[in-house]
Design a protein that fits this description.
The structure holds two protein chains of two kinds. Chain A is of the alpha+beta class. Chain A is 22% helix and 33% strand. The chains are: A alpha+beta, B mainly alpha.
């Protein structure tokens, strides 16, 4: 049997699977309160050297606060932060070996591109010719050579973003902190820049920590993602694990599109679990074992692209098949998404998406068609409430 | 097509009228009085009403106008260069204004900085406090300083009570009192533009500087000061320009040896009743002030271009 893995393998880099591997950055029981508001709640997290790590969450989830504590702009209310074995408590931002790329870029408006990039190097009283060499290297790396003498206000958004990146990389920090670095760019440029970031990270062999609310961005660039909610980590895993094996209803719902089906456990065995939909009574057979007891209500999360859709009615007695009625069709170009009504209520629908692999479709599915929705035993995930 | 071109044309007529308004204002209330003053400065003192000749009498018609023009001379201006009092007054005025401006900046910068860095909720109140003195007459506030600075005044009483001095300091009727008066009176004019430019300063710039290894005190000099320079320049001009021509403060607080052109002008006009010479003094004062005013305008223009 072929080796199975969750999602594609990006690179052979899995230090987190080895419990002896020393972490490069460690948050140990960190709590941060702003008055009564708890921004970060008793959070522990390990990040490894040369890792590209993403903090992902909605606004106000505490991801930026966590990064700002690492940079030194906020002090933890309790707990410790270690970087390369050193406790960061009491070390001011200007003596920390990390550099940050700000969401607003925070370029110095009275200095040209060259001076902006050289600013950090000058603080270290580096010899002038070394500064010059490093600046021209950074200009080359970020393709900004012909803009060296320009002031920030004479640059486009994309160019400013690259200056900010060059400035934060110039000092060769132990960790580069990226605070929503691509938020201000348009979609095309953002996607390009994501790959540039990944290449840079590999080339410079640095540890990158990115804060973002954009799940696609996090999934594209990161080795591991920490999904945050209300100041706590919900799940820390690779992008594929986060997507294919979410550990909670929150993560399943937050990342990508998902059908969440409320179901009761009816059978448990070594071969897997059987569930019955609470609302519509169809049977789900999963190879996953669950801690939930018999009769307990759980959620079955299945991604729309893992639901097959075909015209017709289901075969009697078959599991993982549901009769539906086409309710809505969204044609998105690359994929189509079909909402099928599986119960009495108009909102009781299951979404199925499929790639539009050919231009011409014979006998296409259309509104009010009777369809059968089916899926494999390993297609979905059982989640406790 | 024709409609498209018609609309901007209509607008320009309205626009021109709008633009003409301030020019008209300047013409009536600045240029015309200036020309009258300039004309008087070319006349001679005379015992008559008005106290100079020639006085243009339109009843004499064109001939009279031509004759009057023949009598005009620059004698008063030559007189200004001959008597050392005048150029000494000018130089002394500029020096006093410059020193006062420097002190105003040294006191005003921390005030503006503190205001810009204070919690958002406090700022309107602080701004209000800066403007508050304007609710009392300028003259009365300067008079009040006499009560504070005189030998048996509040300041001396306070210092003697503390035992810091045995006999009263002589401050009133010296240049020091003039400096205090100017700094006090013009402080809001420096604080307001400076506060505006400091408040606009993006806090993340300072964080970025610190993140790149720059301690906060150094970041102040490398980031805050250069970026607040437009505010500093605007504020300094707003103090320096009126301070040069200041009359009330040196008259009330200064001593007999405080030489300022505003005072010289007053004496020339009211005591000597020499309208032509005092007019010449005023014209030269205006000429001297035109230089910093033009510089100020240039700087403002540059700033607005940069931001645009």
């Amino acid at each position: 049997m072929a080796k199975k893995s969750i999602g594609p393998v990006r690179r052979e880099f899995v230090p987190w699977e080895n419990s002896d591997h020393p972490p490069f950055i460690e948050f140990r029981n960190v709590t941060k309160k702003f008055g009564e508001f708890v921004a970060v709640r008793n959070l522990s997290l390990k990040i490894y050297e040369k890792e590209f790590f993403a903090l992902l969450g909605g606004s106000g989830c505490g991801k930026t606060t966590l990064m700002r504590m690492l940079a030194g702009f906020e002090t933890p209310t309790s707990g410790q932060i270690f970087l390369d074995g050193q406790d960061l408590a009491g070390i001011p931002p200007y003596r920390r070996p990390s550099n940050m790329m700000f969401q607003s870029y925070a370029l110095f408006p009275h200095m040209n591109v060259e001076k902006n990039i050289a600013f950090g190097l000058k603080q270290d009283s580096m010899p002038a010719q070394d500064i010059e060499a490093r600046v021209s290297e950074m200009l080359r790396l970020t393709k900004l050579e012909q803009f060296a003498q320009r002031k920030p206000h004479q640059l486009s958004g994309g160019q400013r973003q690259r200056v900010a990146l060059a400035r934060s990389l110039a000092k060769r920090p132990k960790v580069l902190l990226l605070d929503e670095p691509l938020g201000a760019l348009d979609r095309k440029l953002r996607e390009e820049t994501q790959f540039e970031l990944m290449n840079l990270q590999e080339e410079l062999e640095m540890t990158f920590l990115i804060v973002t609310h954009d799940q696609e961005e996090a999934m594209t660039v990161a080795d591991r993602i920490a999904v945050m909610d209300k100041g706590e980590l919900v799940q820390v895993a690779t992008p594929a694990e986060i997507y294919e094996a979410p550990n909670s209803k929150f993560v399943a719902d937050f990342i990508g599109d998902v059908n969440l089906i409320e179901a009761k456990v009816t059978e448990k065995s070594d071969a897997g679990t059987r569930l019955v939909s609470v609302v519509d009574g169809f049977v789900i057979d999963s190879e996953q074992e669950t801690e939930a007891g018999l009769g307990e209500t759980v959620w079955y999360a299945i991604r729309p692209e893992k639901v097959r859709i075909a015209q017709g009615r289901r075969e009697e007695g078959q599991v993982n098949q549901i009769d539906g009625l086409v309710w809505d069709i969204a044609y998105l170009g690359d994929v189509s998404c079909i909402h099928s009504k599986v119960g009495e209520d108009d909102h009781d629908t299951i979404r199925a998406t499929f790639a539009n692999i050919s231009r011409m479709v014979e006998n296409p599915i259309t509104w009010d068609d009777e369809v059968v929705l089916s899926f494999d035993r390993d297609a979905g995930v059982i989640l406790k409430g | 097509m024709s409609e498209q071109t018609a609309t901007p044309a209509k607008r320009t007529i309205g626009g021109k009228l709008l633009i003409a308004m301030p020019y008209l204002w300047l013409l009536v209330f600045f240029l015309a009085p200036f020309l009258i003053v300039f004309k008087i400065s070319l006349s001679q003192i005379a015992v008559s009403i008005p106290p100079y000749s020639p006085a243009i009498d339109l009843a004499e018609g064109w001939q009279g106008l031509v004759e009057a023009f023949r009598e005009f001379s620059f004698e008063n201006y030559i007189w200004l260069t001959e008597d050392a009092l005048y150029w000494k007054s000018y130089v002394s005025s500029v020096v006093i204004a410059a020193i006062s401006t420097l002190f105003t900046l040294l006191i005003g910068y921390p005030i503006a900085y503190g205001m810009a860095r204070s919690p958002q909720a406090w700022r309107p109140t602080l701004l209000m406090l800066v403007i508050l003195p304007f609710w009392t007459s300028f003259l009365i506030r300067v008079y009040a300083w006499i009560g504070i600075l005189k030998n048996e005044g509040l300041l001396n009483q306070f210092l003697m009570m503390l035992g810091l001095i045995d006999e009263p300091l002589v401050i009133l009727n010296t240049n020091i009192a003039v400096y205090i008066g100017i700094v006090y009176s013009y402080l809001p004019f420096l604080v307001l533009p400076l506060y505006a430019s400091l408040e606009r300063l993006d806090g993340s710039l300072l964080e970025a500087a610190e993140d790149l290894g720059c301690p906060p005190w150094k970041a102040f000099w490398k980031i805050t000061v250069p970026l607040s320079l437009p505010g500093v320049i605007a504020g300094c001009f707003l103090v320096f320009i009126p301070a040069v021509g200041e009359f009330v403060i040196p008259d009330l607080l200064g001593g007999s040896n405080t030489l300022m052109i505003g005072k010289t002008l007053w004496v020339e006009f009211f005591n000597n009743r020499d309208w032509p010479v005092s007019s010449a003094v005023a014209v030269i004062l205006l000429m001297i002030l035109v230089i910093p005013i033009v510089l100020f305008q240039n700087q403002q223009q540059k700033m607005s271009e940069k931001e645009g």
